[in-house]
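re: ur question from yesterday

yeah so i grabbed the chain u mentioned. its 655 aa long if i counted rite. heres the sequnce exactly as i have it in my notes:
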Amino acid sequence: MKVCRSAGAASFFLLLFWLLTPGRVCGQETNEQEKYHVDSTLFVYYQRCRTEVTSPSVMQKLDTLFQMAKEKGDERMQAVALSTKVDHFYFSPSFEGQEDSLIFYTNTVKDFSLKTDQPQYYYFAWANRLITYYTKQKKFNLALYEANKMQKEAESREEIDGMQNCYQALFRIYQSKELYKQAALYAQKLIDMTLKYNMNQYNLANKYLELSNCHLQNNAPKKAWEAIEEAKKYIINEMQQGYLLCATLRYYVHVEDLPKAGTVLEEATQLYNSNAELKTKRLTHLLEAAVDYYMKIGEYDKALAMQTQSFGILKQNGFIPPIAYRRLGLIHASKKEYQKAIDNYEHAFLLSDSLGSIQEDRSAGEFATILGMEQLNQENKELIRKNQEIQLENRRRLIILLCIIVASFAFMFFREVRLNKILRRAKDVEQSASRMKTEFIQNMSHEIRTPLNSIVGFSQLLGSISGKDEEAKEYTDIIEQGSNHLLQLVDNVLELANLDSGTPILTDTKVEIGKLCRQWMEETKNSFKPGVEPVYEPGQEEVYVHTNPGRLTQVISHLLHNSARFTEKGSITLAWHTNPKQKLLTISVTDTGIGIPQDKQDFVFERFAKIDTFSTGTGLGLALGRLIMEKMGGSLTLDGKYTGGCRFVLTLPLK
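ran it thru and got these structure tokens back, copy pasting raw so excuse formatting
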């Protein structure tokens, strides 16, 4: 890594902090000017521009500042003038064309920074302005697209400050999307980089506390506490101490250590009451943690009072998220005020549905934008490729003229190089498309899960208050079953996408196959219909194999449940045996059910394939099972010779 540039980045952020901090006294200004060698005339003029950063007239003044800095040979102040143009469009109220202007001036700063070797401005404008703008506007796909581009550039150039900005941007994106597992990953990377390269540690305590919150959201309390302990080492003011107490309170509530939680709540309340900045700017952090605490100890009136106070603050800020209504509904439900609970859950559901529709429209526009960018990039790559081909052809002719003896060998060598380049390029394009598809499915699956979970929770709440009304209970059961069925479909599609993208399946766990088979039969025999006999036929007493028991259980259990659905009488047989010569383990599931027609036996392994379109199920189980077995080095087939029902045969290599 270019460690020297990290030092330059630290100096840049100190300078930026100085430039952006209002209310400095004259002596401070003089000291900072001398420290950074800033011309006094340029500095005073910049101050005037900064105070009018949102005014339309500031653009002309910044052009003047840029020209003045150019005449004095101050490239840093030229970059500052251009960066302030980006700030103008970033901080201005929303208007038509704001995004296009922000993109244009961000690219202007990036071009100038590359020419003058000032990477700190390059990544600051890109990450902290453009990507942050996309994140605040909930345009997460565009934000991720830009962040991934920035990460590749920073890695290829070995720019430490670029990687730091990139990790910070990715953390904010995933945190906003409530994907806390990915957010924790980038928060940890950001902390590790700060410590490794001894970068500015002013906000290191906050980074650890944000990491702790991500671990709690991922139900990893041990890691959350370790992050809190590390944060204590870097606390430098009361604001950070307030954050620490809130994080500690959330931890104790999560692990249900309520006596310690009560003590921390009292300490935090005293600190917030004594610190005006905490009380006015960050009170909602304390209120949310206090609500969780009072809910745990059953003091629902206090929880309601805290949540109501939080509601007032959120309303002043202009937006109340759906989760706030759900929390209020949960409090009313705990107080047995069911009508109020229903009203709040309904409000949360309608708000989530509205936000979901808006997000779908935005996602469609984002993908159209991304596809347009990719098309331009592809056309550029095609022109470069054609130019390279022309250059290769000219070189080849020159080599033939100068080295006629080795012409044939040279021709074969360059042809191979060319084909390899084309193949690698095609492979890169395919992998990029696969990643984009996987990310799209994951993002859309997450967006679908959110309203579905609301539907399931709402239907359960309706079922719990319906009493003896059998018709209402039947309708809520239908809603819940349909939602769960759709969730299963989303899970299957997501799993297929992950496997298609190349996710490996490890097969290094040693298990006793007979024990597994007995467990499968025991778990599924309750789903057999009356008159159907479960039969288990082991190949021998005891055999240990190295495989993936979780994936194997997923496939066999699906086959047994399928047999149970379509077998009215007779038997369902689970059998296995080994073939030492071929080093194979064979497992079969045989039933006496309705069977599968001969012409449909290949069709059933296709995705979304269903012989009876009116039957329940997603039509993905057999396709997913065959893909899993292929990933494990085995196979899943249907025995076409068996006519008494269905027999599925599964083979695995013996290690």
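noticed a couple things. Residues 12 and 647 are 70 Å apart (CA to CA). also The longest strand covers residues 570-579.
anyway ttyl
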